[in-house]
Amino acid sequence: MTDCDLCGRALPSVIPVRVFRSRLKFAYPEGVWKGLCETCLDSSQKTYLSINKDEISCRRNKCILCGKKGRVYPVEIQIPDFSKGVVIKKVNVCTKCLDSINETYIRFKREQIKSSSFEHGHGYIHEH
């Protein structure tokens, strides 16, 4: 079991997203991996699509994934709660991490489409 790095939900597996932590750039120049559940990945993608790249974010805070201080955007996450079911909370994510999440999202959805087409027999060539 592993935990989602945004909502904390424990799952058998998470979707790896590469982030670049400024404090670790010499030790890990290729970036480090953070794990997101599918719900947080979808929510982050929704934020990525809604931001205007030319518009300056008025939020200045610390990114929850890479720790960089600066302009961030709110990502709505769903935190599991035993008494309430789900608690909606907003966390701050920077543009660079949102870009990385977008790349991961596209790759993840492509893999899902490929695997579903093979499961239904559409990926195989049938010879007569």
How does this structure look, described?
The chain is an alpha+beta fold and 128 residues long. The protein has one domain. The protein is built from 2 helices and 7 strands, in the order ββββαβββα. α1 packs across α2. It is globular, with a radius of gyration of 17 Å. The N and C termini lie far apart (45 Å). The mean pLDDT is 84. It comes from Methanosarcina barkeri MS.
Task: Please give a handful of descriptors for the protein shown.
single chain, 128 residues, alpha+beta, two-stranded antiparallel ribbon, 31% strand, globular
Low-confidence stretches: none
Largest sheet: 3 strands, antiparallel
Strand content: 25-35%
Measured between the Cα atoms of the first and last residue, the distance is 45 Å
Order of helices and strands: EEEEHEEEH
Number of strands: 7
The total count of helices amounts to: 2
Number of domains: 1
Instruction: Give the overall pLDDT as a whole number.
Output: 84
How large, in whole angstroms, is the Cα Rg?
Answer: 17 Å
Silhouette: globular
Largest sheet, order of strands side by side?
5-6-7
Protein name: F420H2 dehydrogenase subunit FpoO
InterPro entries: F420H2-DH_FpoO
Pfam families: FpoO
